[in-house]
């Protein structure tokens, strides 16, 4: 698998997420100040709720931008079979019922990218799986979920 292609796909996904959240936040903020959401009494909280939603979307946009910067700053290296797994590693795990690919990234855990017909899931060291494989090498076993590290790139 091509790690550069995977990182580019992750960056594209983060760019789309940033733009979507930013645009929606701006529209929501504008709607919160519209005459239709103007408070009609002390218990009418539509405007306040719209502002909370806009704030949340703006935070998600900021998180996507920060994640993109972290991926751009990630040093690119190829891992050998004897090197410990670290950030930037592409790892294949085999389970009893198949295999799966994971990219150990600095942020944006949970993003799924398709590359060469395979699904690659971004995980971080904050996740239980990411924390387990950090520092391991090809051929090592992990316990939860029970798997073997088949390859590291």
Short description:
This protein has 153 residues and is α+β, with helices and mostly antiparallel strands.
Give a quick set of tags describing it.
single chain; 153 residues; alpha+beta; 2 domains; 6-stranded mixed β-sheet; 3 helices; elongated
Explain the overall architecture:
- The structure is a single chain.
- A six-stranded mixed β-sheet has the order 3-4-2-1-6-5.
- With 153 residues, the protein is an alpha+beta fold.
- The chain has two domains: 3-73; 90-152, no CATH class.
- It contains three helices and six strands.
- It has helices at residues 3-32, 46-73, 128-133; strands spanning 90-95, 98-104, 112-115, 118-123, 141-142, 147-152.
- The longest helix is centred in the first third of the chain and has 30 residues, at 3-32.
Structural class: alpha+beta
Overall tally of structural domains: 2
Helix tally equals: 3
Largest sheet: 6 strands, mixed
- Contiguous low-pLDDT stretches (5 residues minimum) are none
Shape: elongated
Read across the widest sheet, the strand sequence of neighbours is: 3-4-2-1-6-5
Mean pLDDT across the residues is: 92
List SSEs in N-to-C order: HHEEEEHEE
Taking the alpha carbons of the first and last residues, their distance comes to 8 Å
Cα radius of gyration in angstroms: 20 Å
**Strand share of the residues?**
15-25%
SS elements, strand count: 6
């Amino acid at each position: 698998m091509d790690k550069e292609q995977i990182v580019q796909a992750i960056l594209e996904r983060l760019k789309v997420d940033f733009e979507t959240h930013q645009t929606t936040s701006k529209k929501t903020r504008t709607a919160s100040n519209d005459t239709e959401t103007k408070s009609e009494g002390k218990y009418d909280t539509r405007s306040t709720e719209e502002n909370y939603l806009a704030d949340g979307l703006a935070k998600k946009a900021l998180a996507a931008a920060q994640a993109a910067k972290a991926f751009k700053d990630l040093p690119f290296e190829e891992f050998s079979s004897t090197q410990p797994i670290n950030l930037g590693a592409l790892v294949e795990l085999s389970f009893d019922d198949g295999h799966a690919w994971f990219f150990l990234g600095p942020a944006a855990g949970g993003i799924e990218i398709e590359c060469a017909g395979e699904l690659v899931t971004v995980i971080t060291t904050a996740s239980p799986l990411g924390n387990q494989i950090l520092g391991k090498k090809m051929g090592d076993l992990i316990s939860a979920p029970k798997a073997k590290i088949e390859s590291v790139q």
